[in-house]
Write a structure and sequence with these properties.
Helix content: 25-40%
CATH topology of the largest domain: Flavocytochrome B2, Chain A, domain 1
Low-confidence stretches: none
InterPro entries: Cyt_B5-like_heme/steroid-bd, Cyt_B5-like_heme/steroid_sf, MAPR/NEUFC/NENF-like
Strand order of the largest sheet: 3-6-5-4
GO molecular function: heme binding
Largest sheet: 4 strands, mixed
GO cellular component, one term: membrane
Distance between the termini: 120 Å
Family: Belongs to the cytochrome b5 family. MAPR subfamily.
CATH architecture of the largest domain: Roll
Pfam families: Cyt-b5
CATH superfamily of the largest domain: Cytochrome b5-like heme/steroid binding domain
């Protein structure tokens, strides 16, 4: 009878977890389940392995290139030389814009450094051409139609304010027409017209203010040609 001690039997490694998910070895040689919860870890591990391989290959190419130069041989083009691609430039610009915007938010409380930029005016929109008679049909009398007002050619949907722009409302006289002149003079009897000839500089600034106000708060729906 042999006195040689029996070798301890190694436990059999399980290649699947209890849910049937296959296992793979991580960088430390451990078997790790490929279940969903481990996917970020495994993906990062794969990235680290690929990155280490790239670094090693790059170091090998550099060493070979230096050896050729030392022997007086032509090393050929340096494929690992640092160069900026278009995407690198775009990413750098995006980072710079983000930093400038964040600084503006911290300093002035605005991402645009307090600058009032109306993005809508640069955004292409589909505009409908209205005649004066067509615009008049949207004066709030018909409850099934939206309520429009116009200022110096631009038409705005004020249906949300039907109570004040509709019949009986305090601003009903502005509905269904371009009353640009009345917005600057305050005369609601004889100045309900789009004719702004003769307005002084102060009145024109007031008109620009009203247009800016409605552009910010209302969607520009149409463009009025002023034709009868």
């Amino acid at each position: 009878m042999s006195d040689k001690p029996a070798e301890a039997q190694q436990p059999e490694e399980q290649l699947f977890d209890q849910d049937g998910n296959p296992k793979v070895r991580d960088s430390k040689g451990r078997l790790v389940s490929q279940k969903r919860a481990n996917q970020p870890y495994l993906a990062y591990q794969k990235y680290r392995e690929e990155e280490a391989k790239r670094v090693e290959e790059k170091a090998g190419r550099k060493r070979l290139r230096e050896e050729k130069i030392a022997r007086g041989e032509d090393p050929g083009p340096d494929v690992d030389s640092e160069s900026w691609s278009l995407w690198d430039v775009v990413k750098t610009l995006l980072v710079l814009v983000g930093l400038v915007a964040l600084t503006g938010q911290l300093v002035t409380g605005s991402l645009l450094w307090g600058t009032n930029v109306d993005v809508k005016q640069w955004w292409p929109t589909q505009k409908t051409m209205f005649s004066e008679a067509q615009l008049a049909k949207f004066d709030g009398v018909d409850p099934l139609k939206p309520v429009y007002i116009a200022i110096d050619g631009d038409v705005y949907d004020v249906s949300e304010g039907r109570r004040i722009y509709g019949p009986g409302g305090s601003y009903h006289s502005f509905a269904g027409k371009d009353a640009a002149r009345a917005y600057t003079t305050g005369c609601f009897q004889t100045h309900l017209t789009h004719d702004i000839r003769g307005l002084n500089e102060k009145e024109l600034k007031s008109l620009a203010h009203w247009k800016s106000f409605f552009v910010k708060t209302r969607e520009v729906q149409t463009y009025w040609m002023g034709q009868t």
